[in-house]
Write a structure and sequence with these properties.
GO biological process, one term: DNA transposition
Structural class: mainly alpha
Pfam families: HTH_Tnp_1
Radius of gyration: 20 Å
InterPro entries: Homeodomain-like_sf, Transposase_8
CATH class of the largest domain: Mainly Alpha
Protein name: Transposase IS3/IS911 family protein
Organism: Natranaerobius thermophilus (strain ATCC BAA-1301 / DSM 18059 / JW/NM-WN-LF)
Helix content: 55-70%
Shape: rod-shaped
Length: 88
């Protein structure tokens, strides 16, 4: 088993080919990528069907959740700093 790295354009191309009607099995044999990997790419790059997500992929949702957690942490730090400066 080799650890190959694929760029995002290649991954999106494979997902687009899947959505245009190619089977995962055919794509796997033609491009030398495992079926499991292709299914993961399909999950990552396909629009999420949850309510209110309008075209957001799983990857986009994950990035937004990380950003939200970072912003919440920054907000808490600022609140603590504000109470410290208010006491002075």
């Amino acid at each position: 088993m080799s650890n190959k790295r694929y760029n995002e354009d290649f991954k999106r191309t494979i997902v687009d080919l899947y959505h245009s009607g190619s089977s995962v099995r055919d794509l796997s044999s033609e491009y030398g990528v495992t079926e499991v990997t292709i299914y993961k790419w399909i999950k990552d790059f396909s629009p999420n069907q949850q309510s209110g997500s309008e075209g957001a992929t799983s990857k986009d949702m994950e990035e937004m959740q990380k950003e939200m957690a970072r912003l919440k942490e920054e907000n808490e730090i600022l609140k603590k700093a504000m109470t410290i400066f208010a006491k002075k």
